[in-house]
């Protein structure tokens, strides 16, 4: 993913091969997609996948990354990954890897009817990443 948090030169989000394969299937069915990392409530803290633009983002959200998903026909499809600014304040020292597992999540994410769910695995930023976090990793106002 291309870094999109201001003053950062590293990606905060990655996808496993299984997640990418599911995303490709979902793009085939739904067109371009987007993700929003949920902060809790009825869907726990799951990464939620929506058709692009179906989840309205604004000043209360941080765009954590952008990727062009490779498609089987050789083209790509845009995908942005978002998180609420309030949640980012808590997770600003972490790197996220989006995986795909069997099971049904409790939310409205597009993979649910397939008996799958996206899962966020996190790790602390490495020293090189943390040093390059700039404004994004140093305070709650990144965006």
Strand order of the largest sheet: 1-5-6-3-4
Order of helices and strands: EEHEEEEHEEHH
What fraction strand? 35-45%
Percent of residues in helical segments?
10-25%
Task: Please summarize the sheet with the most strands.
Answer: 5 strands, mixed
Which geometry do the CA atoms define? globular
Summing up helix and strand content along with how strands pair, one would put the structural category as alpha/beta
Count of DSSP strands: 8
Radius of gyration: 15 Å
Helix count from the secondary structure assignment: 4
Q: Roughly what is the average pLDDT, rounded to an integer? A: 86
Which blocks of ≥5 consecutive residues have pLDDT under 50? Answer: 135-143
Features:
three-stranded mixed sheet; 143 residues; 4 helices; alpha/beta; disordered C terminus; globular
């Amino acid at each position: 993913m291309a870094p999109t948090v201001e003053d950062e030169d590293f990606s905060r989000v990655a996808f496993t091969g299984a997640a990418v394969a599911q995303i490709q299937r979902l793009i085939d069915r739904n067109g371009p997609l987007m993700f929003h990392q949920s902060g809790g409530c009825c869907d726990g803290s799951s990464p939620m996948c929506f058709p692009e633009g179906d989840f309205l983002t604004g000043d209360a959200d941080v765009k954590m990354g952008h990727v062009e998903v490779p498609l089987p026909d050789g083209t790509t499809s845009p995908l942005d990954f978002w998180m609420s600014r309030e949640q980012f304040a808590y997770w600003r020292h972490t790197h996220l890897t989006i995986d795909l597992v069997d099971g049904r999540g409790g939310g409205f994410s597009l993979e649910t009817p397939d008996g799958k769910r996206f899962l966020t695995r996190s790790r602390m930023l490495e020293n090189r990443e943390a040093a390059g976090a700039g404004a994004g990793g140093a305070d709650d106002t990144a965006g």
